[in-house]
Each structure stands twice: as C-alpha cells, then as structure tokens.
Design goal:
Elements lengths: L4 E5 L4 H16 L3 E7 H11 L11 E5 L12 H25 L7 E5 L5 H7 L3 E6 L3 H8 L1 H6 L14 E2 L8 E2 L11 H18 L5 E3 L7 H6 L3 E3 L25 H7 L6 E5 L8 H13 L4 E4 L22 E4 L4 H5 L4 E6 L3 H9 L4 E3 L6 H11 L3 E3 L10 H13 L1 H18 L4 H13 L29
Parallel strand pairs: 1-2, 1-4, 2-3, 4-5, 5-8, 8-9, 10-11, 10-13, 11-12, 13-14, 14-15
Antiparallel strand pairs: 6-7
Helix pairs in contact: 3-7, 10-14
C-alpha cells in the first residue's frame, strides 16, 4: 500500500515557509510522502542560502516550485501585487501540479495542506476531488477576524472594500481583546488601493476555506481561548517549529538568507539573561532616522545586544547607514540569525520584535519577554496579546517626531529587565506551551488525529459550521492562573 501523498503550499514569505516546512517534517516523520510546493523565486533563494543542491536527494520530502506570476525584479514586499499575481498565475500552475499527479500511476496526491493565505488552492483540490486542509500560521484571532469579515460588513463596521466606516475599537466577542479600526490588519499594509486589493483577496480565501472542515492553526488553546469559542472548527496544532533536539537536514532548509551561526559562539561568552536580541523579520524596513535612533538606543543601554540587520533592511533608502559615534562594542550584528537557537540560549534577556506571530511563538516557547515594535498587518494585535492579555512584554512610545527615540529604547529595556514578574509569566507560558507539544498534549494529539484523517481516504468529518473538527482542547491550565 502506497503512503498518503500530501502537497504542502505555503504563502511565499519567510515565516510562512518556515512554519509549513516544520509541519512537513512532522508529517514526514509520521509516514506521509510530502511534496513541498514553493514559489520559483523563494525556491531558488532557499537553495542558494542553504547550499541544498547536493543534499536535496536526502530530504524526507520532495521540493518543487511553481511561478508566482511576478518578475525577478518585482517587489515581493508589495503584498497587493503579489496577491493579484498569484491568483492570475500561481493558481493555474498549482492546478497543473495536481493534474500531473493524477496522471501518474501509484503517486496520486491524497491531500492538499494550504496556508490559509493560499486557500484558493482548496478550489483546485475540490475540482479534482482531493481532500484538503488550511493552516493559519498566524493567531487564531487573525483567522477568526478574516472569517468574520463578511459579518463586519453586514454590521456596518467596514465597507465592502474593508475600509472602516468609523474610527474606534470593536470586538469580535467578549472573550477576544478589543481591536482598533486603525489596526485592522489589511488596513495596515500599503496605501488605500493596496488595502482594497488585499481585503478582496481575503474575502476570496474565506469563501475557499469553507470547502474544508480542517481549519488548523499555529497556536495553542490556552493563549487565545476566545477565538476558539467563536469558531470551534479551528484546531490548535502549534507552535510549529524546529525542536531543540532536531539536527541535520531539518535545521538546514527553509531560510532565504544564510544563517550566521557565529552569533551562537558569541552568545556563549555572554552572562545569563544579559543580551538584548533585536530582530524584525523579513519585511520590516526603517528610514534613516529611525534606524540610527535604534542603533544609538542599543548602545545607550550599555548592555550586550545581538542585532539582525538584513541586507535589504535598507529598502529604498540606499544611504541608510549607522550613525556617527556608533561603535557597537557591546553588541554583535548579523545579516540573519538562527532565531530559534538564539532565543533558546540562556544568555538572552529579552526580544525586541516586530511581533510577527511566528517570532512570538518562538519567544514564548523559550520563556523570553518582549519589547514590541509592530510593523504592519497583524503585528499590532499580537502586541495587544503580549502586553495586555499575557503581560509578558512592553510596547514603545513614539516621540513628537514620530520616532521611537534612543532614550525610549533604553527606558523600556531597563523597565522590562528590572521586572522579574514578566520573566516569571514568560516561563509559565513556556511550560504551558511545552505541555501542548508533548506526546499526549493537545497540539500533539490534534495534529496526529487530524493529519491521519485528512491524508487518507477516510470520510470528511461532519460539516456542521457550528461544530468543532475532530480534535480536542485543553481544560487544564488557564492563563488566569498566573495573571
């Protein structure tokens, strides 16, 4: 009997690829044949960064690529253009991939696992009668917000293009922290024209998501119970990340930039809980003034720091440079870091982060408190979780010039690191998350139970929209125990 064959399709961004790559490893370890379908552009970047050409054959799954519809010089940080291009080109190419599988004897694809931001792939799977699941790599609250978008229009909170009709706060339910209309995720990306495109793309993937009863999410129940109460079909299977025990191939693939592992040896030389780790993901860009204030702020703390400064951090400002007088003697600056290994290092004291959900998960599972510097999209709501719901971090305040000043950076670093309660709450969260990932834990069992059903010829679970998919949630530890 042939192994179940699963095609995994990530949204073409670094964090999404990492998350679904880790999911692919877990599925492969459980006996599934995996085809990982990256965009052509990111597939080439990944192979170049990891020098994987010689080791591709040793992978536990197959890497394939399909065009994303954009040219080599196009700006893939322009999310609106990327979404339009994918619908125009990538959907058709994905259909060819599935069709090719059907024509191959003994290698038929039995399941598609699509990033929730690529849920149009479910339309293709449905056309061929292939089972499918969506996985949200962000918070369950973000998935709930997207699923709730048609009702937000019906209630008059937003117009048909997703633009808020009135400013203020709103709530999806009493059990989910309030959101600001200013920080609705699709309203925090690009200009108004881009926001309309992105919102209509979201409506498209929401409709497509209803073609399956498997809504998986890279989170745990205890972190955001309100979202699971509002949409019981969402199943927590996270956090999906490399385990501390993993080695070899798993630690080598998925990155778009080569990891500078010299920072780990540098961390070995630093005292425990002393280093400020600063990393803003793969999208964040700074103007010159803010970049220089950040540099001077880190130096002003007089604490050791590890700062990730990507080559493309300069963005459109080719003159972005370190400020006069910046020596960086207390720190180490790298182009890209092995973030999970960094955050698990005992020298790390706190994480200055853009609050992307995958970075949030990596910080939480290592018990590291946060200093929040959200950039766009769902980052602003993730900050609310960190600072207000879980109380494991602080946010920065802007000055009259619209900057986070060097003095504000030093002030918040000092406050956070002198507050032992933040570290204590972080360590309690670490324990709760770790329990979910162990054999018998909620996330562990939900992934094991539902991956088996989805990837075989078993019937779909009942499609009652008010009923949860096959799985279960924790009734044990609750965050209220340590707030």
């Amino acid at each position: 009997m042939s192994r179940p064959h699963v095609v995994v399709l990530p949204f073409p961004a670094q964090g999404h690829v990492n998350c679904l790559m880790n999911l692919s490893h877990k599925l492969a370890q459980n006996g599934f044949k995996i085809t990982f379908a990256n965009s052509d552009y990111n597939h080439k970047r990944m192979l170049k960064a990891m020098n994987m050409e010689e080791t591709e054959e040793s992978l536990p799954f197959t890497l394939v690529s399909i065009p994303d519809g954009m040219g080599p010089e196009d700006d893939r940080n322009d999310v609106a253009r990327l979404c339009l291009a994918m619908l125009k080109t990538m959907k058709a190419e994905f259909e060819k991939l599935l069709e090719h599988s059907i024509l191959k004897d003994g290698d038929r694809i039995t399941c598609v696992v699509a990033d929730a931001s690529m849920a149009w792939a479910l339309e293709v799977a449905h056309k061929f009668g292939i089972k499918a699941a969506v996985i949200c790599v962000a918070s369950a609250a973000l998935l709930a917000l997207k699923l709730h978008a048609p009702k937000l229009i019906e209630d008059g909170l937003i117009d048909s293009n997703g633009i808020p009709i009135a400013k203020g706060e709103f709530e999806l339910s009493l059990d989910i922290p309030k959101m600001s209309t200013t920080h609705i995720p699709w309203c925090c990306i690009g200009n108004s024209a881009s926001q309309k495109i992105i919102f209509n793309y979201i409506l498209r993937i929401v409709r497509a998501s209803n073609l399956t009863d498997w809504w998986l999410c890279n989170t745990i129940f205890e972190l955001e119970p309100g979202a699971f109460t509002l949409y019981p079909k969402i199943l927590p299977i996270g956090p999906l990340m490399k385990s501390h025990e993993s080695s070899g191939t798993q630690s080598l693939i998925g990155q778009f930039w080569e990891e500078d592992k010299s920072c780990l040896k540098w961390l070995d030389q630093q005292p425990p809980c002393s280093v400020i780790y600063v990393a803003f993901g793969s999208f964040t860009e700074f103007n010159t003034s803010q970049f220089q204030e950040l540099a001077l702020g880190l130096e002003l703390t007089q604490r050791p720091f590890l700062w990730v400064v990507r080559e493309n951090d300069k963005g459109k400002d080719s003159k972005l440079t370190y400020p006069d007088g910046f020596e960086g003697k207390n720190g180490k600056i790298v182009n890209w870091a092995p973030q999970h290994d960094v955050l698990s290092h005992p020298a790390i004291a706190c994480f200055v982060s853009h609050c992307g959900w995958i970075s949030v998960m990596e910080g939480l599972i290592n018990g590291v408190p946060f200093l929040c510097w959200p950039y766009f999209g769902d980052h602003f709501f993730d900050k609310i979780y960190i600072c207000e719901a879980w109380k494991v971090g602080l946010g920065f305040d802007f000055d009259d010039q619209g900057l986070i000043s060097r003095h504000e950076i030093k002030r918040k670093v000092d406050i956070l690191l002198e507050d032992e309660s933040s570290r204590e709450r972080s360590m309690k969260l670490k324990k709760i998350i770790s329990n979910n990932l162990r054999d018998g834990g909620i996330s562990f069992e939900n992934l094991a139970n539902n991956s088996g059903r989805c990837a075989t010829n078993l019937d779909y679970p009942a499609s009652d929209p008010g009923a949860p998919a096959t799985g279960y949630w924790s009734s044990g530890d609750r965050l209220s125990e340590f707030r």
